[in-house]
Specification:
single chain, acyltransferase activity, transferring groups other than amino-acyl groups, GNAT_dom, Aminopeptidase, Acyl_CoA_acyltransferase
Length: 138
């Protein structure tokens, strides 16, 4: 399976992917999923055979690149696509910030730890799902 990951202005496709994963699969409310940060963030789309398969968002806040709204459609999970999406987000953020931060769903902590993130602080509820903040240097 081959894929490519690009920085995009196609926020509508990113929102469609996020809707499928976060709202439809995970039951996150639209009010919790859609916020005012999309217009000021960088967006990535992962394509498999020219079809959108995943997305992530990078919001620069001072010296920190907050990576969020990371999702991969179910058929592509476990393929390495998600890890490549995070690596691309880190690459895009490098030079724009010195630290990367993301709020990881607790079930995905090991995935992010394998990519160099370290969990910090307590577990917290975000949209009804347990999360922990994670950080890593860029």
């Amino acid at each position: 399976m081959m894929w490519r990951i690009e920085v995009t202005d196609d926020i509508a496709t990113c929102l469609r992917l996020r809707r499928e994963v976060f709202i439809d699969e995970q039951g996150v409310s639209e009010a919790d999923e859609i916020d005012d940060l999309d217009g000021q963030s960088l967006h990535l789309i992962a394509f498999v055979d020219d079809a959108p398969a995943g997305t992530a968002r990078i919001t620069i806040q001072g010296d920190t690149a907050k990576i969020g709204r990371v999702c991969v459609l179910r058929p592509y999970r476990g393929t390495g696509l998600g890890a490549d999406l995070i690596r691309k987000a880190l690459e895009v953020a490098t030079g724009k910030a010195t630290t990367a931060k993301l709020g990881a769903q607790v079930h995905a902590l090991r995935f992010y730890e394998r990519l160099g993130f370290v969990a910090t602080g307590p577990v917290f509820d975000d949209a009804g799902i347990d999360h922990r903040d994670t950080v890593r240097d860029l």
